[in-house]
Automatic annotation (TrEMBL), chains A, B:
One of its GO terms (biological process) is proteolysis. One of its GO terms (molecular function) is peptidase activity. Keywords: Hydrolase, Metal-binding, Protease. PANTHER family: BETA-ALA-HIS DIPEPTIDASE (PTHR43270), SUCCINYL-DIAMINOPIMELATE DESUCCINYLASE (PTHR43270:SF12). It comes from Bradymonas sediminis. InterPro entries: Cyt/Met_Dipeptidase, Peptidase_M20, Peptidase_M20_dimer. It comes from the Bacteria. This is Dipeptidase.
Length: 454, 454
């Protein structure tokens, strides 16, 4: 195949690719919102029809107890490697809506970027592979490897039905490597392969004082205030050095190696630039670690939400019955989500006075991941990235979680290639999520080359 | 006037009185809710029309920059004392709506109690005076004293326009005593005169970390989390002994006298019964004080609301930009609301790390009050209460705030008689607010006798 065919095809079709991406982004496939169930199903249909349209051989919509999985196979290269592409078509809720400059489900291009919920996480990144496959099929006629695609609709709610499905379909999913684009490049123009991900434990805790709301004048000063008690608990979840104060929390952590710390330190990273990107007055975190170490390879604890009492306009002198917080821990290799939840619950139960009641609601968790930095598939991905971007990729770890990577490692015994196409300022999970069009088009090109290199 | 005329009139008309009260309670006059402005105005009209209907001479609706004041005069007893009756026709918001057994604005009688928002605070208690005036007018033909009525629509938002109106109408309001029924009896069957009230300082504080919501995986562990920081602040607002930790907070407090502490200790009060009424697993508060002392005569600090991050169903791994809390202090005689707010703000500003930004939004405050326990008017009210209830009233202080009492003391130089008709379990400001019909009917009888005794 001539080296120019793919770039030519991409150049000719890139406007259409963008329009198709917009169509995909318009579907509000919010998996956590039970009122969006039909939109999520519609999105699965759209993905399936699109894959058929670009010439993928066998496309199925597989029902689960939750949202459907789209599974496709295009295996016409006997004796050649089999690659499984994983992605997700569901998205995070768009709240708070009022902070979006343009509506989250009306994709808009500004300044070389497309803005929409899911633009980068993960619709845009996954769609780059669709278009890479299309480009290869249309220019070369056939794929040089066997490709399987597994696209789920529950990644943003912790993939509750994916693992059972993977276990039940192990043989069907057999492959030599898994390719996932659901993470970030280290910086614009720096193609990146990610070899580590953090895991997650997520739970809610509710503190109850009185069993109904009381007047703060008639009762204030005599009964436990659940907001004040919850605040005292949260305040004791970290020590003064920014370390998580839950006993045993760090026991199973696999420490960073001196080699890794050295590699991280070599990456061009500027704390002040990073701070400016967050808009926070200052950075903070666990004493003794750099910002990159803190965000990639150290476990954390954050409140993701808190609520209780009167939160409307104006003043209401209520002494509320309950206060609740959503709390999550990012975990690093070695840590177990369930064990960390148990440690957190035991510690919090010990912190609360006996004048209040606590209840816990665990949400999904996810295992942390460390993969090889050197094998055939990683080298092939490196070549494809170099061919499209013109430079060698860097190796990083990621702060987010892709729980399914652990499932693939455990169940399929296949190595995973994490080839992120997004950028750290893509505002995923936030208002005004975006995907740089350069990343989108280069991602398509990389994907188009990848099949030959593999 | 025969002693039997009033009881007979009340017995004959009590069903109608109840129907009229229901009509009054159906108007959702929520003063803090800007969408209810027309309902609040409609409620003022209703009150004015009702006063005209029972034979009150001169009834006016007085516009203010906020909700209107209903002002009425019935001064046909030259040379006799003039009594100002104060009350409010506005109510608290009904949230959380889902906890009401019957809708807040569809008054329902169950088990000898009427349930509705405003049933006791203050529509029901005020309405008892309307009916007491009616009973006296219909049975005796005329009132033996001069009566003025001042009924505002902004009590639940701190009466922002009442003080200027009182100042501007000082001469018109001139009186020998003020009568207010907007508090509680000590216990069922124990008529009560309240001689002290707590004041209030109320403000919101918002903590900002990043200037937009961030993904907790990509940023968690490196930037300040506003929820965690707000929790740390709140946790430092009390010390281990339940005392408010704001420096200077207690400086101006007028301590309870040994005589008062002795009187409080003699009242039949059972901690366990009180605890059971709140439904809390245990009571708590400032070390060194009894429950009655804590709720009536010690200053407090409580969070009334807290919110930040994702508070919807399910899990969202967001690292939020802001978290906010509504915080109020109940104040006791000697303390100044503005000074306490300044102390709180200064202390909180000192607690926050420089990685976050703080903003404060002060809401309304109110002065604490101590009135005489012995003068002509108090003795007259005692006799009226004894005549209707059959026992001498007890003297108490109250934990709530009626800021206007301080205004009357300062501007009109008139003593206030706080004659509460409610009960501590009336759930005012909470779902399922109620007013015992016995309190309503006895309150009407007391009011009907009061004018003769005065």
């Amino acid at each position: 195949m001539s080296d120019q065919k793919i770039p030519d095809y991409l150049a000719e079709n890139q406007d259409r690719f963008l329009e198709e991406l917009k169509e995909y982004l318009r579907i509000p496939s919010i998996s956590t919102d039970s009122e969006r169930k039909e939109d999520v199903a519609r999105c699965a249909e759209w993905v399936a029809e699109h894959l058929k349209g670009i010439g993928i051989d066998d496309v199925q919509i597989e029902q689960t107890p939750g949202h459907p999985i789209v599974y496709a196979e295009h295996c016409k290269a006997p004796g050649k490697p089999t690659i499984l592409v994983y992605g997700h078509y569901d998205v995070q809720p768009p709240d708070p809506l009022e902070l979006w400059e343009t509506p989250p489900f009306e994709p808009t291009v500004r300044d070389g970027k497309i803005f929409a919920r899911g633009a980068t996480d993960d619709k845009g990144q996954l769609f780059a592979h669709f278009k890479g496959l299309e480009a290869h099929l249309k220019t070369a006629g056939e794929l040089p490897v066997n490709v399987k695609l597994l696209i789920e609709g529950e990644e943003e709610v912790g993939s509750p039905n994916l693992t059972p499905w993977v276990v039940a379909n192990k043989e069907r999913l057999a492959c030599d490597a898994v390719v996932i684009s659901d993470s970030s490049m280290f910086a614009p123009g720096m193609p990146t392969l990610t070899y580590g991900l953090r895991g997650l434990t997520y739970f809610e805790v509710t503190v109850q004082g009185p069993d109904h709301d009381l007047h703060s004048g008639l009762f204030g000063g005599t009964v436990p205030n659940p907001i004040n008690e919850l605040a005292k608990i949260i305040a004791q979840l970290h020590d003064k050095d920014g370390r998580v104060a839950i006993p045993g929390f760090y026991d199973d952590v696999i420490p960073l190696t001196p080699d890794e710390r050295e590699q991280f330190a070599k990456l061009p990273f500027d704390d002040e630039k990073f701070r400016a990107q967050t808009g926070a007055p200052g950075l903070c975190g666990e004493v003794g670690y750099t910002t990159l170490e803190r965000k990639w390879a150290r476990p954390t604890l954050d409140c993701n939400g808190i609520w209780g009492g009167f939160i409307g306009e104006g003043a209401k002198t209520v002494l509320p019955s309950t206060a609740s917080a959503k709390i999550s821990c990012r975990l690093v290799p070695g840590q177990d989500p369930e064990k960390v939840f148990d440690l957190a619950r035991d510690y919090i139960e010990g912190l609360a006075p006996d004048t209040v009641k606590l209840t816990f609601l665990p949400h999904h968790g996810g295992d942390p991941v460390l993969t090889d930095r050197d094998n055939d598939q990683v080298r092939a991905a490196s070549r494809a990235l170099k061919k499209s971007w013109g430079v060698d990729p860097v190796f990083t770890r990621g702060g987010g979680s892709i729980p399914v990577v652990a499932t693939f490692a455990n169940e399929l015994k296949s190595p995973t290639i994490l080839m992120g196409l997004g950028l750290d300022d893509d505002r995923l999970h936030s208002p005004n999520e975006k995907f740089n069009l350069e990343c989108f088009y280069k991602g398509i090109e990389t994907s188009a080359y990848l099949w030959d290199e593999l």
